[in-house]
Amino acid sequence: MFESLQENLSSALKTLRGRGTLTEANMRDGLRLVQQALLEADVSFPVVKQFMGRVTEQAIGETVLKSLNPSQQLVGIVHRELIELMGPVDNSLHIKPGVHVLMMCGLQGSGKTTTCGKLGRILKENGRKPMLVAADLQRPAAIEQLKVLGSQLGLAVYAEPGAKDPVTVCQNAVKQARQDGIDVVVLDTAGRLHIDQELMDQLTRIERRVEPQQVYLVVDAMTGQDAVNSAKAFNEAIELDGVILTKLDGDARGGAALSVKAVTGVPIKFIGTGEHLDALEEFHPDRMAGRILGMGDILSLVEQAQRKLDQNQMAEQEARLRQGEFTLEDFRQMMNQTKRLGPLNKVLGLIPGMGNLTSMIGDADAEGEMSRLGGMIDSMTPAERRSPSKIDQSRRRRIAAGAGVEAHEVNKLVKEFDAMADVMKRVSGMGMRGRMQAVQELSQKAMANPGGTLRKQKQGTGKRLTASERAALKKQREKELRRRKREDKKGRGK
Question: What is the side-by-side order of every strand in the sheet holding 100-105?
Answer without folding.
Answer: 156-158, 130-135, 184-189, 100-105, 214-220, 242-246, 268-272, 280-282
